[in-house]
Design a protein that fits this description.
single chain, mainly alpha, Arc Repressor Mutant, subunit A, two-stranded antiparallel ribbon, 2 strands, 6% strand
Amino acid sequence: MERDLSSATLRAIRRIMRASDRSGRRLAAATGLTASQVLVLQQIEKSGETTPGVIAADLQFGQATVTNIIDRLVAVGFATRRRGERDKRQMLLDITKEGREALNRAPDLLQERFVARFEALPTWEQAMMLAALERLSELLDASDIDAAPLLDSGDINKAPDNLTTLRTVSPLTSAR
């Protein structure tokens, strides 16, 4: 019986990992971006002209992580960065037409579906799931790993495999 529960738990974990991986591949194929890059780009679009610090705080990402992501978004022409008029130390971000088009092509993010469904659960069930996942994190020796609130595996600073290809071949960026 205990072995059956262990196997069922491992299968459930594997399904979550595969769903995250599949979602990331679909997103990269449609936009050339990772989930973290899409979240940053969405936040820039939502906020209008904004700063990296505001994006980092809103998404609960580290400042260095947001800076790395913004560097990639600027490199492919999905965002712009310029110095503030009044305070030259301030960097202001904005989304480009190409960035909006990439967001329009993006499939729904796995984490957005999760959040909508999770928040519809009763509070007691949300707390129970959180406690179980925190305990699972401890069992996997992962409780001390820093993690952004993002359903994606690996380093959130990474670029998808096709980002360089997107930049050099995409009709969006070659038309600039």
